[in-house]
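Continuing the series of single-chain predictions for the mutant panel. This is the parent chain; the variants come on the following pages.
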Amino acid sequence: MPPAFTLHPQLAGDSLPIGDLTLSHLRLSNDAGFPWLILIPKRADISEIIELDEADRVVLMQEIAAVSQALKTLTGCDKLNVAALGNMVPQLHVHVIARFKGDPAWPKPIWGQVPARPYAEAVAADLISQLRTLLPIS
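Parent structure:
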């Protein structure tokens, strides 16, 4: 039996749960400065996309596209940044970040530019609710 999927504590602490897609657990980064979603494939001991089997890679790409479309629909952003960095958190996770030409980090990457500003509870709940209507969340 393969090892069970567990969420890395850093991801759990820095984000809010939205729900599960077919392959990935979806979370909202708790930074109101940037609408930012995180997909975490529910596979144990995986740190790179190339470590997923081919079927899972296909599903992950489909999920990235669906999450990207939902975020663009909700925010009307100028650009979507999609990245699987993992320099700080080794568990495979993919960031989908809505970027705006007027955001505080534009045009640079968001990391290290401005301190995170947590969501007000009602604002996060509303965004999560809207995402759940646009995506096949379980």
